[in-house]
Design a protein that fits this description.
- The chain is α/β, with parallel strands linked by helices and about 425 residues long.
- About 35% of the residues lie in helices and about 20% in strands.
- The strands form 3 sheets. Strands 8-9-10-11-12-13-14-15 form an 8-stranded parallel β-sheet. The chain has a 6-stranded mixed β-sheet with strand order 3-2-7-16-17-18, with no helix packed on it.
- β12, α8 and β13 form a beta-alpha-beta unit.
- α4 crosses α5, α8 runs parallel beside α9 and α12 packs antiparallel against α13.
- The longest helix has 18 residues.
- It is globular.
- Bound molecules: 2H-imidazol-4-ylacetic acid and zinc ion.
- The site of 2H-imidazol-4-ylacetic acid has 10 residues, from α3.
Length: about 425
């Protein structure tokens, strides 16, 4: 068999080899490091992973691309399983309010927050949304991210805008090296037109929007913002179940700010993941562990909200919950595309070990999207999505925080990003 691309002499090849399912407890530490590692790729798939040289049955010729891994740390492509990628505008005008002690929900209740992004997203054309999201995707790729989840939710009752967001995500998935998987999140806030009649909006989502999203294949997942003053546990249950009835996989924004019981709901309805979980109850965490719901933790959001409260990641791991990490990239509570910063926060603030962090940013993030069979580890048969970090080891990437350690990114077997240190 002829290899198209080979990465060799890799000082630290972190494969994450293991079962294709969410990794829990001690499994989150078993990341499988090969020193002097080598990876061979044919087309978009990994065909060999080992130490030293290639075996005899893998050939190379003048068309084979070689990448030298000396002094480098190599991992599976990072996966960002929770973003609000496609949106109009920005919300830096909320900074003064935040510094004056207004909380996220105060700003939302005052008609700002999500509502301000809804307005900007409605006003933006398809092309404007596309260009803005593409810029962010380029940045994400530069940070080593090869798969991104993208939510709708800035159109609300304006279904055309919801569709526009999902169409932009679809087009970007076709055009851009990064894979984008789409989530329908019409239930992101109660639109002002339905303030007095939230039931009417829920009916609209269930009766009109979900069937349309499914029919046009606009999303694979459904998500609801289950939060005080947004959607109650009962309303969230109803919407998630309606989505599941149409074959959408359920995810839920759970217990981000107030402890409503979102974690319990995620376990009850069989969500593939529950996200945020800063205020999740111990009972809810236990139930998530029992039902195999992946916890997607978003420490950059906690940092940005300035509450000093972070999800209890250690407790979750103890209870057998598979922990994943994500940027939550959005214009309000997490305006950053930097997955490497999230990894540093997860370790330095939430006390995950570097091994747990890389598991959470790769195979468990894949599991949060039900993509663990295809991506999330460097193993024969998996998609060749690989990051080459200019770092001597994993600890270094996490310790030297806030900067970009990416040297190269291979996506679908092709070299798609190369660091440039040009100073002119
Ligand atoms: O635009 O504020 N938490 N939704 C729920 C968000 C953050 C995104 C936003
Ligand atoms: Zn979110």
């Amino acid at each position: 068999m002829k290899a198209d691309l080979i990465i060799k002499n890799i000082d630290n090849l972190i494969t994450l080899k293991g079962p294709n399912r969410p990794r829990v407890k001690e499994e989150m530490k078993e990341i499988n490091i090969i020193n002097n590692g080598i990876v061979a790729i044919k087309e978009d798939k990994i065909i060999y992973v080992g130490e030293g040289e290639l075996p005899n049955n893998i050939e190379t010729d003048e068309s084979t691309v070689f990448i030298d891994g000396r002094g480098k740390t190599v991992t599976p492509g990072l996966i960002d399983p929770h973003t609000h990628l496609v949106h109009g505008g920005s919300r830096e005008n909320e900074l003064a309010m935040k510094l004056n002690g207004y909380g996220y929900l105060d700003i939302l209740a005052a008609g700002g927050g999500i509502h301000s992004t809804v307005k900007a997203t409605k006003e933006a054309s398809f092309e404007e949304l596309y260009e803005k999201a593409k810029k962010s995707l380029d940045i994400m790729l530069g940070f080593g991210v090869t798969t991104v989840e993208a939510k709708s939710g800035y159109g609300l009752d304006d279904f055309e805008t919801e569709i526009k967001q999902m169409e932009v995500a679809k087009k970007l998935n076709e055009d851009h090296p990064v894979d984008i998987v789409s989530t329908f999140m019409g239930a992101h806030a109660i639109p002002s037109t339905y303030k007095e009649n939230p039931r009417g909006f829920i009916d609209l989502i269930i009766e009109k929007m979900i069937p349309y999203v499914k029919e046009k294949n606009l999303a694979k997942y459904i998500d609801v913002f289950c939060e005080k003053g947004v959607f109650s546990v009962e309303e969230s249950r109803e919407i998630l179940k309606a989505g599941q009835k149409y074959g959408l996989l359920a995810k839920v924004h759970a217990d981000e700010i107030e402890p409503l019981g979102g974690a319990e709901l995620a376990a009850e309805v069989g969500c593939i993941s529950a996200e945020h979980l800063v205020a999740a109850s111990d009972k809810g965490i236990k139930k998530m562990g029992e039902e195999g719901v992946v916890a997607v933790l978003l420490p950059a959001t906690s940092f940005n909200l300035q509450t000093g409260k972070f999800a209890k990641a250690r407790k979750m791991i103890e209870e057998g919950v598979a922990v994943a990490l994500s940027t939550d990239y959005n214009p309000g509570s997490s305006p950053t595309e930097n997955m490497q910063l999230v990894m540093s926060f997860a370790s330095l603030i939430m006390k995950l070990t570097p091994e747990e962090v890389i598991t959470a940013a790769t195979i468990n993030a894949a599991a949060a999207l039900k993509l663990e069979e295809e991506i999330g580890s460097i193993e024969i048969g998996k998609k060749a999505d690989i990051v080459i970090f200019d770092a001597p080891n994993l600890n270094y990437i996490i310790y030297h925080f806030g900067i970009n350690h990416t040297d190269k990114v291979v996506k679908n077997g092709k070299l798609v990003y190369k660091k440039s240190n040009k100073i002119i």
